[in-house]
Design brief:
endopeptidase fold (from Nostoc punctiforme), six-stranded antiparallel beta sheet, alpha+beta, about 30% strand
Amino acid sequence: MRKRVREVEKRRPLSRRIVALALLFALLGPLCRTEATAAGNGPERPLRGFSGLTVQEETAADWQASVDRCMRTGEWRRDLIEVAKTQLGYCESSTDTREINGVNCSYTRYGDFMDSTESVVYGPWCASFVSFCLYYAGVAMPLSSGCSAMIRKLVDVGYYRPAGEYDPRPGDLIFFYSGLERDAEKLNSGHMGIIVEIRNGVITTIEGGRQIVMYFQHDMAKEGNRILGYAEIPDNPNYRTVTDEEGLVSVSGILPEGVMVRTSRLTRAQVAPLMQEEVLCCAYEVALMLDGKKYEPKRPVSVYLHQEGLDAEGARVIQMIGYEEGREPKLCPLYYIRADEQGVSFVTCFMSGFAAMRPAPPLPDETEGQEKSAAAEADKGARTLI
């Protein structure tokens, strides 16, 4: 697929714009198309000639900026979900519209991303939305502006899974039947989305194509017969996880072969200036080592601290620098913090010191303690009398 961007016309007073556009079409007509390269790593597109006064002022640089709000580690499922979340709330245009096959259709960045053909730029866009997210998440999967066409491509590469034969996971794609048709062998899909969560028989998705990008929930007990199938997102072959020798810390990401994790314990005194009324669970200085030298990852990585009890309410994990003796340590931001019964994971851009803590247990009430002591003395006296 050729990647393209459109040229953006600078805003002008209305009369000047009308004159300029009239001259443009009179002189250049259908030749007003050229080539341009997008900033960053966004798509490249042939520039579309203006067909009216309403011009969408978006380029591939804008598309890239819209997804740069999330941190991508190279774990394709997670990255796909995070990229999709950056698009929540995006609406199709209410002013830049075209009539296609008797239907009034609106411009979207997702159709524009996929193709310069009017029927795609202004056409149904749920598959184009998913393709946009796959591309910017770096997932090596086929892209398409049509749901059924995408299924056929997925069948060819072995990633399509019929409903009833596969248990989907967050990060997979979901396909719905077209209209009232329920013939699974025809592979005709009329809508699709990205699965972000599966809980208690309810699949939560992020979907486009319905005027706005938003969350949807599908109750399997009620809507299971609408689901045609899924696309299993593969693991990134370049994504690997390495753990230190003691099994204290794991680091996952796009890491070179041979990289190792080195950990050393930090003292409470080094962490204390950043602690509140908390119990220190663990504190490590973590470094990645390659060929005997420190290695800094080229992109964000996911770190997992193996420590029980961090899923308790109020538990906290921090990253810090400048924690040498006699210095005041400084906090650094962490992203996507998630705790479970065995530890806590988060995303960071570099290695340094990490600490995890939980709230200190409340001190016994002084009055309550006195009452318990008095009761104990009374009980002792009673037993003495007996």
